[in-house]
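Usage

Read records sequentially. Each one opens with the input sequence:
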Amino acid sequence: MRPIIFLLLSIFCLPLLAQKSSRSRSAMDKVAIEKQQEEALFKTLINDMEAAYNEGRYLQVAQYYHDDAIVSGGDNMVEGRDALDNYWEDFFRIGGKWDLTILWERHYDNYVVQRGTSVIMQRNGEKSEVQFFLHWTKKEGEWKIAQDIYW
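and closes with the structure output:
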């Protein structure tokens, strides 16, 4: 009698267990895909910022920041839309080529942080290199920088 009960339980329960496992795997796959998509988005954002700078569109770089964002480093403390626009427009004086390298990136529920290096080969041949920390948040469906700290 026991073997029959075991056989019947196996016939009815195994498909349910397999279904549950499949759903669980499917949910994990969905999370992994979303993470890959978000990581790709941030690579694109960084590449687009570099391209804007390298093409002399400095004011467009400022648009990657929230209106109330803060840029802080060295003797600089920049806060708010007008100050951010002025800060990035001032790069017209030095120009050159900008290279951003992300060393690590962490994704959380409602923000992303990145640490990296920024190298500007200025028009006059001088090299400016700093380390940075970016804190991105999403407002109105759009990821923008809330804090940019460099040293």
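Summary fields computed downstream for this record:
- The mean pLDDT is 89.
- The longest helix spans residues 2-54.
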